[in-house]
């Protein structure tokens, strides 16, 4: 039952913060967004009646056939994932901090870390972060701490929201500088790196990048290390079923968005940040770390370790201020990865690559449409269209198909383009519907 604050409670809270009335807290919000009261039904409803009414309201929602990606992907999640994560041993609002927390919970975290380390080819992984953006920002912060430098080099293909998050982390200081590596045919221009890297803390790159292009990482780490900088790589975990792991091409920190590993699209979250690093940087890694040890009887056990890095132990010297943990999401990713296994993950990646390739083939054959870039891509691609991309999307949405993300607001230099995504959930029939929707929207 929800018990609202009393008038006395509200009066005391307003007095403490020095605000006469509640309306003063929201006076900057345009009036069209403010509701004087909730328009709740006046009649009382029993449980069955309330459920029926709410179901009727929900039925008004339109769920189009979606070809959106841009960091959040529609994937099939095996039923076993929800069945296991719904068990009462795991499904709890409590976040374990004590080193002697439940052995079952700790083993699940340890298995998650092992999975992430194996996927990304790194020595260590933490117990998870909030999402891919926070993992990316924390990795760059770690590189700044290691090198003592405040110049950050990043590829133009990095998810713009990741960069917004990073700049928010560093907003308290004007000392940090950001230098963008330009793109060449949709991917990072490697030839520009040597001149840009002088005095840099790190190079931050994403592959596949925000536009779906697979970056050529051959020799990048050597160039970065020669400048005394570190390499931060963001990678989609499903793509690693086919592509080289960041550890293989010399990344110091490897991060990613774990939503693809068994988490649904749910209006922006909760998502799951994957974070891994090389052994020499483990004390700069944020968040909790679960280790395997032996108890006094010689039996195997699991324990939260290296906790002096964390804010609840030494707040003033903590590696990060991260507090809550995405443990349930991490468990879902662990179960999902275990169900697929290495071979299954490879097949999943192949299915994603195949779906995107087929969609690109069909759409680029439409008169006036073409692929913006020629390089290899995964999951999504950039489609150049003859009309206004945003208007085309609105027309297609009216017909029940979301044909992709207009890129002009994020990349004006790309002109009228759409970022189109097709995962393993999209059938041949779905892609043919997409083709029809694009034709009708022209």
Give a quick set of tags describing it.
single chain, 442 residues, alpha/beta, Aspartate Aminotransferase, domain 1, Aspartate Aminotransferase, domain 2, 7-stranded mixed beta sheet, 4-stranded antiparallel beta sheet, 33% helix, globular
Q: What does this protein structure show overall?
A:
It is a single chain. The protein has helices at 7-17, 47-58, 79-85, 103-120, 132-147, 160-169, 193-196, 220-226, 327-364, 389-398, 428-441, and strands spanning 65-66, 124-125, 151-155, 177-181, 183-184, 187-188, 202-206, 230-234, 253-257, 273-277, 289-294, 300-305, 370-371, 380-384, 401-402, 405-406, 417-421. The chain is of the alpha/beta class and 442 residues long. It folds into two domains: 65-74 and 342-441, Aspartate Aminotransferase, domain 1; 79-336, 3-Layer(aba) Sandwich (Aspartate Aminotransferase, domain 2), CATH 3.40.640.10. The strands form five sheets. A seven-stranded mixed sheet has the order 2-10-9-8-7-3-4, with helices on both faces. A hairpin with a 2-residue loop joins strand 5 and strand 6. Helix 5 (132-147) packs across helix 6 (160-169) and helix 10 (389-398) packs across helix 11. The protein starts with 6 loop residues before the first helix and ends with a helix. The model has no long low-confidence stretch (mean pLDDT 92).
């Amino acid at each position: 039952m929800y018990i609202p604050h009393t008038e006395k409670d509200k009066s005391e809270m307003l007095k403490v913060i020095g605000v006469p009335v509640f309306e003063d807290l929201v006076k900057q919000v345009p009036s069209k967004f403010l509701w004087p009261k909730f328009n709740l039904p006046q009649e009382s409803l029993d449980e069955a009646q309330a459920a029926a009414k709410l179901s009727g309201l929900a039925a008004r929602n339109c769920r189009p056939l979606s070809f959106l990606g841009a960091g959040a992907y529609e994937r099939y999640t095996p039923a076993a994932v929800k069945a296991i994560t719904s068990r009462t041993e795991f499904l709890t609002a409590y976040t374990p901090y004590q080193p002697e927390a439940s052995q079952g919970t700790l083993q699940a975290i340890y298995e998650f870390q092992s999975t992430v380390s194996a996927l990304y080819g790194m020595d260590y992984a933490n117990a998870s972060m909030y999402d891919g953006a926070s993992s990316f920002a924390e990795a760059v912060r770690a590189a700044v701490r290691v090198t003592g430098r405040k110049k950050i080099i990043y590829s133009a293909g990095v998810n713009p929201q990741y960069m917004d998050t990073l700049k928010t982390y560093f907003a308290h200081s004007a000392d940090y500088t950001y230098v963008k590596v330009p793109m060449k045919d949709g991917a990072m221009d490697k030839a520009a790196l040597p001149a840009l890297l002088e005095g840099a803390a790190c190079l931050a790159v994403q592959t596949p990048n925000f536009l779906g292009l697979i970056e050529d990482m051959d020799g990048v780490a050597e160039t970065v290390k020669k400048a005394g900088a570190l390499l931060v790589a963001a990678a989609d975990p499903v793509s690693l079923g086919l592509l080289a792991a960041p550890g293989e091409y010399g990344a110091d920190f490897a991060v990613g968005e774990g939503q693809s590993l068994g988490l649904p699209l749910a209006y922006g979250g909760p998502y799951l940040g994957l974070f891994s690093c090389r052994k020499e940087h483990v004390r700069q890694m944020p968040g909790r770390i679960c280790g395997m040890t032996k108890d006094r009887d010689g039996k195997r056990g699991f324990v939260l370790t290296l906790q002096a890095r964390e804010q609840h132990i030494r707040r003033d010297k903590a590696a990060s201020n991260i507090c809550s943990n995405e443990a349930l999401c991490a468990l879902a990713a662990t179960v999902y990865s275990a169900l697929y296994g290495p071979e299954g993950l490879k097949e999943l990646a192949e299915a994603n690559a195949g779906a995107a390739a087929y969609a690109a083939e069909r759409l680029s054959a439409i008169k006036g449409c073409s692929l913006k870039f020629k390089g290899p891509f995964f999951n999504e691609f950039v489609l150049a269209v003859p009309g206004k991309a945003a208007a085309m999307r609105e027309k297609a949405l009216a017909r029940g198909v979301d044909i992709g993300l207009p890129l002009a607001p994020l990349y004006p230099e790309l002109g009228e383009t759409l970022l189109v995504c097709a995962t393993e959930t999209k059938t041949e029939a779905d892609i043919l519907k997409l083709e029809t929707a694009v034709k009708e929207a022209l």
